[in-house]
Amino acid sequence: MLKLVVCVKAVPDPEKADRIKIDPVTKNLIRQDIPMVLNPIDKFALEAALVLKEEKGAHITVISMGPPDAASIVKECMALGADKGILLSDRAFGGADAFATAFTLASGIKKLEEFDVVFCGMASSDGATEWVGPQIANFLDTPVVTMVKAIEENEDLTWTVRADFDNGYRRVKVQLPCVFTVTRDLNTPRTLSFSGIIKARKKQVDILGLEQLGVDPEKVGAKGSPTIVSDMEITSNTRETTMIQGTLEEKADAVLELLKDFGSIG
Ligand SMILES: Cc1cc2nc3c(=O)[nH]c(=O)nc-3n(C[C@H](O)[C@H](O)[C@H](O)COP(=O)(O)OP(=O)(O)OC[C@H]3O[C@@H](n4cnc5c(N)ncnc54)[C@H](O)[C@@H]3O)c2cc1C
To answer: What residue's CA is closest to ligand 1, atom 48?
Structure first.
């Protein structure tokens, strides 16, 4: 049976984005008072695993690194059909950059007996570096295909996937075990059902800290993060609007004059 892992991140609710603040010193997100939700694109990663489970039979483990209340998003994934849920949570994991996040998640995945495919979203809605998936693959020593939009062949241990590429796509053959980061084109995520929520009540989220992972404290959290956000600036997107009045000919003449003033035409 296929062993699938889905990485899911708890992010501040994008619909409450106006309440998100950034600590001026650490440049970390100030998350208090903003409800945490499942990173939107991770629903597509989970759906890919759920479809494979229905079509071929699979065991799905959902894994997240985050604060204790991130357990609720792991539970949500179990209500949607995941078999096992793991939350990596410890004060030592706080302040992680993408590198330390990937190291911690890969350490959690290595604790599983085996895995065939690790699904990640392409990007989180808060950090959005798009590095976590590829760096997990690096720590697990597996191939990675980013921006997967379709799984075309999955009969044996070499799968063919279609992945985004500028204005076209790449068709990639990849050997399992591997990591995929997925786009929103891959599928249509299902919504929570009442029976799923009831079934998930009996399921337990396994919470693993530094000790249970057995990793070097210097390699996780802020200590294990080689990058820091040193500066940030909000840029203005406002545009000046000039209303042109008059007949059609007068408006066309006025536009020509404006274009000349801007140096766009001679
Ligand atoms: C404004 C801002 C700028 C930042 N800039 C940088 C930077 O330049 N460099 C840097 O290293 N860090 C940066 N960070 C920190 C970084 O966002 C977090 O450390 C984050 O945990 C990892 O990266 P990401 O959210 O960008 O993930 P992405 O790589 O964008 O996420 C892709 C996928 O990885 C999986 N994933 C990501 N995080 C988790 C998790 N905690 N648990 C489970 N699955 C997960 C999900 O499937 C997700 O869809 C920044 C944070 C902020 C708020």
So the answer is: 121
